[in-house]
Amino acid sequence: LGLCVSVCLSVCMCVQAYFNVRRFLATSHLYPTERLYLGRMNWPTPHVPILAVSELYGLREWPEYAIGAGLIVTHDVVSTVALMQSSGIPLRQTTPEDVVLAVWLMPFEIPRLNTAHFFNHPDMAPHAEDPNRGFCTTDSLVVHYVQAKHFQD
């Protein structure tokens, strides 16, 4: 989903996620117009990767990345990734895709902006093991793993 507000932003979300368009439009003027990588950053939360990062990329640990619920990036960030791919730079397209995007962006020192308005698992309260969990509220921008029951009263 790409939306052009005063600046072109790309919104990437999981298919099971709720995106609060009103909140996004009301707050989009607060976002930088370039070099934006916004999401609920999974750092320094302890993270056990699905894939062995050392085998794939020679890294000791995953970089700071936006959790899979969704993320928002500016057009220049999208263009950078597209340019790398079209220039023949081999981008390993492995899962988990949320982490892989952060790996691709590592050489460019694009700041990661954490927001408390992205959540995983709306049925569970945040806790020490996974502070990314939380209940959907009117302030939520993206909520992951939304089901029909979350919209029933």
List keywords for this structure.
alpha/beta, 22% helix, 4 helices, 153 residues, 17% strand
| Strands, count | 8
Roughly what percent helix?
10-25%
Radius of gyration: 16 Å
Largest sheet: 5 strands, mixed
Distance between the termini: 28 Å
What is the tally of helical segments?
4
Strand content: 15-25%
Describe the structure.
- The protein contains four helices and eight strands, in the order βββαβαβααβββ.
- The protein is α/β, with parallel strands linked by helices and 153 residues long.
- The radius of gyration is 16 Å and the shape is globular.
- The strands form two sheets. A five-stranded mixed β-sheet has the order 1-2-5-4-6. A three-stranded mixed β-sheet has the order 3-8-7, with no helix packed on it.
- The longest helix has 12 residues, at 75-86.
- It has helices spanning 21-27, 53-57, 75-86, 97-105, and strands at residues 2-4, 8-13, 18-19, 37-39, 70-74, 112-114, 118-119, 142-143.
- Mean pLDDT is 75; it is low at 1-6.
- The two termini are 28 Å apart.
- 22% of the residues lie in helices and 17% in strands.
Layout of helices and strands, plus pairs?
Layout: E1 2-4, E2 8-13, E3 18-19, H1 21-27, E4 37-39, H2 53-57, E5 70-74, H3 75-86, H4 97-105, E6 112-114, E7 118-119, E8 142-143
Parallel strand pairs: 4-6, 7-8
Antiparallel strand pairs: 1-2, 2-5, 3-8, 4-5
